[in-house]
Amino acid sequence: MSVATHPHNIYEGTGKPVHQDQDQPVPRDTMMHHEVQVRRVQRHFLQSVCSCGWLGAARRSSSLAAEEGQDHAILFDGAFTGIPSEGAE
């Protein structure tokens, strides 16, 4: 299978090949916004979640959950809103 006809290089619905210039960055207006926050999972765990659908691992350490969420936000030029207060949910 050539690069031009690889399934990831074809517009959905048209079947026509897409020219992808690897030297050009993806236009910012077509990139998904990433807003990451940490949520409490069950009783003793915290998990980073992103508006793009990404989920971090459930962790007992709030600092590890936050670090993982911050890393995802940095990687995708998003926003990290932090860890909820004890009474929030």
Features:
single chain; 89 residues; alpha+beta; 17% strand; disordered N terminus
Task: Write a structural description.
The chain has 89 residues and is an alpha+beta fold. It has one domain. Helices cover 16% and strands 17% of the residues. The chain contains 1 helix and 3 strands; from the N terminus they run ββαβ. The chain has a 3-stranded mixed beta sheet with strand order 2-1-3, covered by helices on one side. Strand 1 and strand 2 (45-50) form a beta hairpin. The N and C termini lie far apart (49 Å).
CA radius of gyration is: 18 Å
Task: Return the domain count.
Answer: 1
Q: Please count the beta strands (DSSP E, at least 2 residues each).
A: 3
- Classify the helix fraction into a percent range: 10-25%
Give the CA-based shape: elongated
The strand line-up of the biggest sheet is: 2-1-3
Order of SSEs, N→C? EEHE
Largest sheet: 3 strands, mixed
Helices, strands, pairings?
Layout: E1 35-41, E2 45-50, H1 62-75, E3 79-80
Parallel strand pairs: 1-3
Antiparallel strand pairs: 1-2
Outline of this structure?
With 89 residues, the protein is of the alpha+beta class. Helix content is 16%, strand content 17%.
